[in-house]
Amino acid sequence: MIGTSLPRPDATGKVTGAARYPGDLIEPGMLHLKVVFAHRPHARIVRLDTTAAVAYPGVVAVLTAADVPHNAYGLVEPDQPVLCGEVVRFVGDRVALVVATSREAAEVAAGLVEVAYEDLPVLADAALALTPDAPLIHPERGTNLIYHCPIRKGDAEAALATADLVLEGEFSTAWQEHAFLQPEAGIAYVDEDDRVIIHTAGQWLHEDRRQIAEVLGLPEAQVVIRYAAIGGAFGGREDLSVQHLLALAAWKLRQPVAIVWSRGESVMAHHKRHPVTIRCRWGAMRDGRIVAVSATAIGDGGAYASTSQEVIKCVALFLTGCYEVPNIHVDAYAVYTNNLPAGAFRGFGAPQAQFASEVMVTRLAHALGMDPLELRRINLYREGSLEPTQQPLPAGVSVRTCLDTCLTTLATLPALPPPAAPHLKRAWGFACGIKNLGYSFGFPEQATATVELHGAATIAQAIVRIGAADVGQGTHLILRQIAAEALNVTLETVQLIAEDSAEAPNAGSASASRLTMMAGRAVHDAALGALREWQNEERPARITVQYRAPATTPLDAVTTAGRPNYAYGYAAQAVEVEVDIITGQIRIVRIISVHDVGRAINRQQVEGQIEGALAQALGYTLMEHFQMREGRVATPGLSTYLIPTILDTPPEIISVILELADPEGPYGARGMAELPLIPFAPAVADAIYNATGVWLSDLPFTPERVLRALCP
Ligand code: MOS
């Protein structure tokens, strides 16, 4: 069961079209919802007139702020209105909800909702958010600061003053759109037990339920979340999008309702990866020891908090990458602006921070006249290294093994014939990566599973209940493999109930590369517990187990010391690029991606995660240039926001899977789904430097930017 490449049971349905995604659940007779969006970045609502919309044939209701029982929600803090009543703070703010008997009627009537606005000054630049004259996005807070995360260790200024070499760097990264294939959609209705059922897509059943119950003012048991087949998430479904709108309409009208967002609505209305600007100084001694890092990072959180607070902590923690630095002075800020809200996206702040840290380490090596890989060997984290937060790292620090394996793998590859023309410059680049696995900084981390064994002499059926979302990453097969292995039964014997908040206990979210470890461990422990009951002749044998990860802590308010994480994953990559110095275009030729996954539960799924994340990393690094102008989206569709296709991905991706067992994970497995995204951009930057002698510091490396760097 463990380590093989069992085929995905859901694959056939997804390929043939038989799988039912949220949009496939819509049935004749359901009412259709259409959101009236603000389409302006900052304005006061002076008048809202729904008369004409309500009068339109087929319209059943037009809901506004006054119809929302508790008009505030959010993953971390409830600062976002369900429907705006007074002020809109970004173009995707929702102002009204039209409910009609057909999609067409809802759409026409949405255009008949009259809203008179008085425009307010637009704050479109995160760097200005904390200046005294900046417009306040949430005036009642008195500041545009969402969160400030300082990290202090040793005395960075003193160490920089006595370092043999100090290098300065400035970096910027762009928004990234999740671009999942399946835009937001779903249905909702009230069932015979007076529960509101929301059948949709998401990353965490029980958190969706918590927020919706709060919005509707209902006990959680009266709200049921069910997930259909999910077409990708990548962090983009952590925040509510359509779920609470569906719930509100179904609850108010007591009729089944449905919604499907267009790609344009999806792009405008769900959060993005944070753009982050980083300024830093790194100090080293002539012998290669990195002695100090001082860095400031500002992340554009957009109009609402979402998970900005947690993302910016991750940025702060990883501004020194995976290197043991004795003196650190870091300040990371997340701020409000009138741009699109920013939140979770695969990597959760780590890609932005480590773009800067990995490039700085390589630049330091060049300035010292050292091999960048040698400088890494001197400074990389090792077992027992102190984190920036002054505590030893959790056990299992394998980044050195990842890097060494990357180099030995590279040595086995044949050299390619030289580029076909003199304007094509080819070179390899390298980078390492680190990412926390699971929830951080004291956030309660648990997963709960129930296992029930039926049969007489032998186990005829094992029912595993765990509310863990399969967003396409393959978690459901992994959990069944783990249960089957622990129970020593066939895969077919294991039935998984995972997609209904009323039928399965809380496993936490499909995020932070955590489900294989956390949900996997809960299923593993519950399976062994049920087996003990079975051996005691219980029929059926049934047990519920909550697995709690080793505790983490918030950082001390004065010393900033603490234990932010209970586990990390590590990676190293080598990327070969070819730069066309006439067009500025970059082709990725070959990639070696090395990952310590503890134990590959399903080898093909691990490879799938590596290849998928690399495609996303390639887009992030070279193509995906999400742009806003004065709070308006300048890249509203997939014709202006370019994501990679199969033709952009290299024919050769060499995935190297290391299995250095994690002490906590089920069968030693540790999470890995975010990691391939982290070293990629700095490895490409390094390769471009090695090919052309110029450093690029602003992501993405579009042809225009490459040319500007080559011919300033
Ligand atoms: Mo994720 S960015 O941990 O959903």
Automatic annotation (TrEMBL):
GO molecular function, one term: iron ion binding
Aldehyde oxidase/xanthine dehydrogenase a/b hammerhead domain: residues covered: 16-121
Residue ranges of coiled coil: none
Source organism, top-level taxon: Bacteria
Gene3D superfamilies the UniProt entry points to: Aldehyde oxidase/xanthine dehydrogenase, a/b hammerhead, Aldehyde oxidase/xanthine dehydrogenase, molybdopterin binding domain
InterPro entries per the UniProt record, alphabetical: Ald_Oxase/Xan_DH_a/b, Ald_Oxase/Xan_DH_a/b_sf, Ald_Oxase/xanthine_DH-like, AldOxase/xan_DH_MoCoBD1, AldOxase/xan_DH_MoCoBD2, AldOxase/xan_DH_Mopterin-bd_sf
Stated name of the protein: Aldehyde oxidase
Origin species: Candidatus Chloroploca asiatica
Organism phylogeny: Bacteria, Bacillati, Chloroflexota, Chloroflexia, Chloroflexales
